Amino acid sequence: MADSPNCDLKSLSPLQLFERVTEQGEKVRALKAGKAPKDEIDAAVRLLLSLKLSYKTTTGQDYQAGLPPKDLVLINNGTTKEEDEDLVDPWNVQTSNAKGVDYDKLIVRFGSSKIDTDLINRIERATGQKPHHFLRRGIFFSHRDMDQVLDAYENKKPFYLYTGRGPSSQAMHVGHLIPFMFTKWLQEVFDVPLVIQLTDDEKYLWKDMTIEKAYEYARENAKDIIACGFDVNKTFIFSDLDYLGTSAGFYKNIVKVQKHVTFNQVKGIFGFTDSDCIGKISFPAIQAAPSFSSSFPQIFNGKENIQCLIPCAIDQDPYFRMTRDVAPRIGQPKPALLHSVFFPALQGAQTKMSASDPNSSIFLTDTPKQIKTKINKHAFSGGRDTIEEHRKYGGNCDVDVSFMYLTFFLEDDDRLEQLKQAYTSGELLTGELKKVLIETMQPLVAAHQERRKQVTDEIVKQFMTPRKLAFEF
Questions:
Q1: Which of 143, 237, 422, 463 lies in disulfide reach of 196, CB 3.0 to 4.6 Å?
Q2: Residue 1 within a domain
């Protein structure tokens, strides 16, 4: 599959089209009920009719409210999609499967490449280091052009890392650490510069918060990121609200991307509607710009040909499919990507973590007692209903959240395999598995809290000041 998706309604699945028609119908009714201006109502009706036509063209059926498509339908890339297919975009992750998202299907849908044993072995040969357990266990499972990054590295050509965080709340949870833990490892084994984007502008546009609050969250989240152990001499952390106004190179790249992406394309990629504010529509160009080294002239001495590698969760991939499509047209190298799986909520992979629900995850501000209570009370179990049944039939590690969390945070491969065998055989009970997780998470969170206490406002300022890093370009 090419990096450029069909950026129109044909790129949506039948179920996604059904949901878009339903949503647009509700908007039309709301506009009419609120006696909105006639031209606004007419525009909404035209979009509704267009959506209904696309739905019929794709499914061969007329849209009927409350009756989503049930049959398998051939879509434009020749694959099939089911009505209960996982929904994955930059703002929503939904699955009906207790095991979580089907990542093999997602690779096919997104057109990325699986991180296989050969690639992992090549990373080990290139770095001389044992691959991170996130690689060994398939937590980072998909990539775009990682082989090209390794080609460059082996030929002594530079590259840099870029990742980010959308600061939607003051308290981050342990799942937010995953990309930063892996990025830190990548930075250390490859010895390359790193830029970290805090998209406080995005959160202001999407959330019900003031600009001041979004910026405050960015600085607070920066403290948690710094507490992961990044080197201030090799890492630049920036707030969009700050940096965009000070860097001509950054803004020029934003404008170049904006010129080469149409409104129809962003609607097709991100699902924007005519009712979305123009800030949302233009935001993808801001997330694209750090992919280009010329956005950071203070680091790269104005060079435009340095490739970027982006470790991120796969829900962010639509931004960078767009970026990779635009890059050659503005004379820039395509960024490469490493995709991670999603971190499950305590209540199970089918539920969504939320900053407004303190029981949906373990937060970096939680006390040891809170961690113990949350795991014991809320962690979804793959165990049986009774001890007798569990001893006889064993537990299911594929759906057990305690085991999933240990896959992320227990570094000892042998210990993890022992736990899996014991739980699957019924030798280890759910309560005992939860106890192992509690004993793993309590010191991990406590150590993070201690490191965060050492991160002063002055240290944050050092990381967030545009400057030359410890590299020559």
A1: 237
A2: no
- In sequence order, the 6+-apart residues with CB closer than 8 A to the CB of 326 are 256, 257, 260, 261, 288
Position 69 in a domain: no
Helix (H) or strand (E) holding 192: none
Is 192 contained in some domain? Answer: yes
Domain count, the chain: 3
| Separation CA 200–CA 167 (nearest Å) | 6
If you search the block for the tokens 């499950």, which residue do you land on? 344
CA distance 406 to 419: 10
Question: How many C-beta atoms surround the C-beta of residue 19 within 10 A?
Answer: 15
pLDDT at 171: 85
Give me the pLDDT at residue 75, please: 29
Burial class (CB in 10 A: 0-12, 13-18, 19+), 264: exposed
Residue 29's pLDDT band (boundaries 50, 70, 90)? confident
Q: Which of 301, 317, 347 is the last residue of a domain?
A: 347
262 burial (CB, 10 Å; 0-12 / 13-18 / 19+) is exposed
Instruction: Name the domain boundary from 293, 314, 347.
Output: 347
Residue with tokens 């031209």: 39
Residues 339 and 396 in one domain: no
Same domain, 180 and 218: yes
Task: Read off the CATH number of the domain in which 54 is found.
Answer: 1.10.287.10
Residue 352: is its pLDDT beyond 70? no
**Are both 342 and 241 inside the same structural domain?**
yes
Give mean pLDDT, residues 241-255.
95
**Which among 207, 218, 212, 197 is positioned nearest to 277, based on CA atoms?**
207
* Inter-CA distances, 68 with 109, 182, 273, Å: 21, 40, 21
- Alpha carbons 169 and 220: distance in angstroms, whole number: 9
Q: What average pLDDT does this structure show over 147-170?
A: 95
Q: Which domain holds residue 54?
A: 14-59
| CATH number for the domain harbouring residue 421 | 1.10.240.10
CA–CA dist 183, 197 (Å, integer):
13
Q: What is the pLDDT of residues 104-137, one digit of tens each?
A: 888 888 889 999 999 999 999 999 999 999 999 9
DSSP letter for 246, please.
T
The arithmetic mean of pLDDT across residues 201-207, rounded, is 95
In a domain, 470, yes or no: no
